[in-house]
Amino acid sequence: MKNDRWVFYDKVTPEDMGGGVTRRVLAYSDDLMAVENTFEKGAVGALHHHPHTQITYILSGEFEFTIDGVKKIVRAGDTLLKTNGVEHGCVCLEAGKLLDIFSPYRQEFVKD
Fold first, then answer.
1. What sign for the dihedral angle of Cα 99, 106, 80, 61?
2. What's the per-residue H, E or C state across 50-87?
């Protein structure tokens, strides 16, 4: 899948991450990765950090995000920047989807 020019949504198998979260790894290369995460209401993205820069675009729903100790409520259309090493996580307040963009790609998300 790495470096595929065309990634069709209906061909990407969602991965159940447990706790009401589903992940779909979309297009990616060594430098960049797109991942869709679907959250059920009440699902938690535990606080964590990683050596990747991450931008999250809220596709739908409502989330309480914590980034570097600061909490904010975000909704569809909002965008968040998490630089490498910054602790972040979320709680889903209203079922929704996030589009995460990583640089470089998250090797642990794929089975190449």
1. positive
2. CCCEEEEEEEEEEEEEEECCEEEEEECCCEEEECCCCC
Q: Which domain holds residue 59?
A: 23-109
The candidate with the shortest Cα–Cα distance to 56, out of 35, 73, 41, is 35
Structural domains of the chain, count? 1
User: What's the CATH number where 30 sits?
Assistant: 2.60.120.10
Cβ atoms of residues 52 and 103 within 8 Å? yes
pLDDT exceeds cutoff 70 at 112: no
**CB under 8 Å to 85, separation ≥6 — which residues?**
49, 50, 51
Amino acid making up residue 24: R
Q: Cα–Cα–Cα angle for 64, 65, 68, nearest 5°?
A: 145
Q: What is the pTM of this model?
A: 0.95
